[in-house]
Amino acid sequence: MPNTHSAVRRMRNSRRKRLHNRAVKSGLHRLEKDFRTAVAAGKKDDAAKLLPGLYSAFDKAVKSRSLTRPTANRKKSRLAAAIK
After folding, report:
1. Nearest of 61, 2, 50, 51 to residue 28 by alpha carbon
2. Could you read off the pLDDT tens digit of each residue along the chain, which spans 84 residues?
3. Which of 40, 56, 66, 82 is deepest in the core (most CB within 10 A)?
4. Entry pTM
């Protein structure tokens, strides 16, 4: 348990941020899974339509600091390569 008032606040903030990051990452995993399922099924047209939404989601995750910029760029690059 925290010993100071500021430590209590930090613990509260950390929990809130952890839950937010978890929700964002969970959404990204779901979108990425839908995309990869479409690619695996050979539905490249559907996958191509999902790609801009995925890019946007990754950029928003970076903006909210749930992901780092290099991680998002790497994932976006690999998703684009998967569709080819």
Report:
1. 61
2. 889 999 999 999 999 999 999 999 999 999 999 999 999 999 999 999 999 999 999 999 999 999 999 999 999 999 999 988
3. 66
4. 0.86
